[in-house]
């Protein structure tokens, strides 16, 4: 996959996502919450998807109290979701909004990085379900709604952790990279643009869990440092597909 960077000429306007409908998975997590707020601030109606209803409700209230466009809450645990759950999601979003302008796949599970011989099969399947199967099924069933938009964007979060001990997490992220390339090629001549983001080390719960003893954790950049990139990837100024964007 080719690597790309946000154009230096892109300067987010205060309402650069005005009237867009954007779904964010893992909306209560580090990148999910930060970008949900950024998208709402930029004028989008954000569908907040996650498994922790209380945290989603807190984020909903935060967006409402800031007088941004009213969001929607969609509770769903990707680990246990069935294909029917994704079918029903598509029907519900269609009934409520009639289309989707973008999806940010920010939900992720680190699993339990471990030597291969000692890996746990239950954790393996759970990690792949959240990081790969869930995004696949969700994208498949929401594709008709994305195709209704005049300029739609699919954004997957990826990572470059390879080598020993990264287990199902690394496998799932490499598979996501493959999925991005397949979708980008299939929809190359359409208004749907498909890209990935590899933000690198960031101050998120997932990264700190991966490196709990690192003395660099306190100095890591917050997800908010990359708001402009994520806004660009959902804006009408995006004109690239099949890229892995780096900050």
Describe this structure in words.
The mean pLDDT is 95. Helices cover 40% and strands 15% of the residues. It has seven helices and eight strands. The chain has an eight-stranded parallel beta sheet, sandwiched between helices. With 247 residues, it is an alpha/beta fold. The chain has one domain: Rossmann fold, CATH 3.40.50. The relative contact order is 0.18. β3, α2 (53-65) and β4 (72-75) form a beta-alpha-beta unit. The protein has helices at residues 30-41, 53-65, 83-97, 121-146, 167-186, 205-210, 227-234; strands spanning 2-4, 21-25, 45-50, 72-75, 102-105, 152-157, 192-197, 243-245. α3 (83-97) packs parallel to α4 and α4 packs parallel to α5.
What structural class do helix, strand and pairing data support?
alpha/beta
Total beta strand runs: 8
What's the CATH superfamily, by name?
NAD(P)-binding Rossmann-like Domain
Uncertain segments = none
- How would you sum up the global shape? globular
| Estimated helix fraction | 40-55%
SSE string, helices as H and strands as E: EEHEHEHEHEHEHHE
Share of β-strand residues: 5-15%
Biggest sheet, in brief? 8 strands, parallel
* Count of separate structural domains: 1
- Roughly how many Å is the radius of gyration? 17 Å
CATH class: Alpha Beta
What is the CATH topology descriptor? Rossmann fold
CATH architecture: 3-Layer(aba) Sandwich
What is the compact description of this entry?
This protein has seven helices and eight strands. By secondary structure, it is of the alpha/beta class.
